[in-house]
């Protein structure tokens, strides 16, 4: 027995403002029924004693220690800029409101 009917697909299509013909209604009803069945099978497998996870293997971040290194002075960094204002790059305003 199909869990998703043609009428339900037609209703979803109307809500989504999609124009589907009769063939598409049958086609999508079958596809949605398969999707609902697959989700139901996954729900059957999930056990209460298994914690939910987002990855199959544990992830660990690899951080490097912060080290102070020599870098460019503000003058060197801004030396090639087409426009500078208050020791910063000057760029065109993209928002019309005041910050």
TrEMBL record:
Example of a GO MF term: ATP binding
One BP term from GO: glutaminyl-tRNAGln biosynthesis via transamidation
Presence of keyword Translocase: no
InterPro entries attached to this UniProt entry: Asp/Glu-ADT_sf_sub_c, GatC
Entry keyword set: ATP-binding, Ligase, Nucleotide-binding, Protein biosynthesis
Reaction catalyzed: L-glutamyl-tRNA(Gln) + L-glutamine + ATP + H2O = L-glutaminyl-tRNA(Gln) + L-glutamate + ADP + phosphate + H(+); L-aspartyl-tRNA(Asn) + L-glutamine + ATP + H2O = L-asparaginyl-tRNA(Asn) + L-glutamate + ADP + phosphate + 2 H(+)
EC number: 6.3.5.-
Keyword Transferase found: no
SUPFAM superfamilies the UniProt entry points to: Glu-tRNAGln amidotransferase C subunit
Gene3D superfamilies: Glu-tRNAGln amidotransferase C subunit, N-terminal domain (1.10.20.60)
NCBIfam families the record matches: gatC (TIGR00135)
Functional summary from the UniProt entry: Allows the formation of correctly charged Asn-tRNA(Asn) or Gln-tRNA(Gln) through the transamidation of misacylated Asp-tRNA(Asn) or Glu-tRNA(Gln) in organisms which lack either or both of asparaginyl-tRNA or glutaminyl-tRNA synthetases. The reaction takes place in the presence of glutamine and ATP through an activated phospho-Asp-tRNA(Asn) or phospho-Glu-tRNA(Gln).
UniProt family annotation: Belongs to the GatC family.
Subunit structure, as described in the record: Heterotrimer of A, B and C subunits.
UniProt-listed HAMAP family: GatC (MF_00122)
Name of this protein: Aspartyl/glutamyl-tRNA(Asn/Gln) amidotransferase subunit C
Organism: Planotetraspora silvatica
Lineage: Bacteria, Bacillati, Actinomycetota, Actinomycetes, Streptosporangiales
């Amino acid at each position: 027995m199909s869990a998703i009917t043609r009428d339900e697909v037609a209703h979803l299509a109307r809500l989504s403002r999609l124009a589907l013909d009769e063939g598409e209604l049958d086609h999508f009803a079958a596809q949605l029924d398969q999707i609902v069945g697959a989700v139901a099978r996954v729900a059957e497998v999930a056990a209460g004693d298994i914690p939910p996870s987002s990855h199959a293997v544990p992830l660990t971040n690899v951080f490097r220690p912060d080290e102070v290194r020599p870098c460019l002075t503000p003058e060197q960094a801004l030396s090639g800029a087409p426009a500078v204002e208050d020791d910063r790059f000057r760029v065109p305003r993209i928002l019309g409101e005041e910050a």
